[in-house]
Design brief:
It is a single chain. The protein has about 160 residues and is mainly α. It has one domain. It is built from two helices and no strands.
Length: about 160
């Protein structure tokens, strides 16, 4: 049993030496490489952090501009809504006024058409009277000419013979 324990101790010592010299040396080298890489990455991280900070500041600045622009747009929308409401009311008032004017014009046109018919009838009546008067005058003139000829024959019977 002593041999077995010695053998185990010897194997453990050998394993410890193997592990301590060969494996641990590889581990130390890889740890050194990782430390160097960490240092290099730490530098990259600082650069990235600085870039991120600058980018964040730019976005904050742009965010302020965007917020100001959004507020301006909202104010403009409100003014546009107020103006469009006011304009809508004025358009409705104008349409109502135009409808009233249109009704008044239609009524005036109807009145004018009635007066035009009346005047047309009056002109036709005056025309008939005037034509009748002219015909009566022509008839009177014709009778007067006949009477003048008759009187002339009575006064100057010789003219008729010649």
């Amino acid at each position: 049993m002593q041999k077995l324990v010695n053998m185990l101790v010897l194997v453990l010592v050998a394993f410890s030496i193997y592990f301590g010299i060969i494996v641990d040396h590889k581990r130390v080298r890889s740890m050194d490489a990782l430390a160097e890489s960490d240092i290099e990455l730490q530098g990259h991280k600082q650069v990235i952090d600085e870039d991120y900070r600058r980018l964040d500041l730019r976005f904050q600045g742009r965010g302020k501009h965007i917020q100001r622009m959004q507020k301006d747009i909202e104010r403009l929308r409100e003014r546009l809504r107020i103006v469009s409401d006011s304009l809508g009311n004025k358009i409705e008032e104008t349409n109502f006024f135009l409808q009233q004017v249109e009704e008044m014009l239609r009524e005036d046109i109807r009145n004018l058409n009635g007066e035009l018919r009346t005047l047309s009838d009056d002109v036709a009546t005056y025309k008939r009277r005037t034509n009748r008067s002219i015909l009566d005058m022509q008839e009177v003139i014709s009778r007067m000419e006949d009477d003048i000829k008759a009187l002339d024959e009575k006064v100057n019977p010789k003219k008729e013979r010649e």
